[in-house]
Amino acid sequence: MSQDSSVIFKNVVKAFNDTHVVKSINFQVDSGKLVTLLGPSGCGKTTTLRMIAGLELPTSGEIYISGKEVSKVSASGRNVGMVFQSYALFPHMTVLQNVCYGLSNQKSKKEEMFEKAEKALATVGLSHFKERYPSELSGGQQQRVAIARSIVIQPDVLLFDEPLSNLDAKLRRQVRQDIRDLQQEIGVTAIYVTHDQEEALAISDDIIVMNDGEISQIGSPNNLYKHPENTFVAQFIGDANKLTGNIVDNAENRVFKINEHCLFTYQGDKTVGKYDVFIRPNALKFVNSESPSDISFPAKIKKSIYLGSHTEYQLVTPWGDSLFMIDYSFDEPLANQTKIFISIDARGVSIV
What we know:
Elements: E1 7-16, E2 19-29, E3 34-38, H1 45-53, E4 60-65, E5 68-69, E6 80-83, H2 95-101, H3 110-123, H4 139-151, E7 157-161, H5 169-186, E8 189-194, H6 197-203, E9 206-211, E10 214-219, H7 221-226, H8 231-236, E11 241-250, E12 253-258, E13 261-266, E14 273-279, E15 284-287, E16 297-306, E17 311-316, E18 322-327, E19 339-344, E20 349-351
Helix pairs in contact: 2-3, 2-4, 3-4, 4-5
């Protein structure tokens, strides 16, 4: 593993015939960081990952790994490990043999190969499964074998191509944390591809949000969620209600207003005028209907869905927009058609 295991893209383009899948992107992943390429299907994230792996070569631009340009270097010439969505384990080989296969191109001695493979299995907590076959393992265990096979070669960069998509929801949470813990423990630079926003927020040092072959925004999970720079990021990173209204002066402060309804107090640096705002569903709060505040508005529950840990509401507003609300309280869900008052926590609001 190189001391400098950074990844740099400079004006990288990838075209298939006349279709530009990746459109002149630039980014840098520092050594030891886990960075996620996030975006909807067809946005270019997997093609970008494959260019890092050397499975695709760029049409133009430069790619650097560990300080060396590898733009025209094939996969076999790069010290990169890749964990695939399908695990890609050999069913006729034992767990230990599968992990050893990652060393087959290094022409190591047999004893040395087994020693390295057993160490990799110990790192992912599977030493006691080394004689089993993939069919005898759970999905999560198979995924960890695939990770062990990738880290056994001590790669400069470890790549993950939607590695959790074949697992159930509960197991996904566990394995994604295992991946993050392992990445931090061994200090490898990792680049992770997913379309799952929650997954990206949970494990990443930074997230590169892609859309239509371009980078929409790069930032930490906290920064992207709280400070989206454009409409796409605001709506893609977590749910958000989009509303259009006006920032107006109101007595001692400024408020965001739709028609005659004041939705929240505004304390930012935007000038008075018309704006689009994006409101997180959990920023909507019930207000006591008997004594609503000046910064609240009436609404009616169109639909409620109880999901155990929270309740989702579809709200009808006086100005015609419907709002999506998430209530994490332990209160009983309110019935459809219930009339209520709503306030908005300005910390859950972004103005783009």
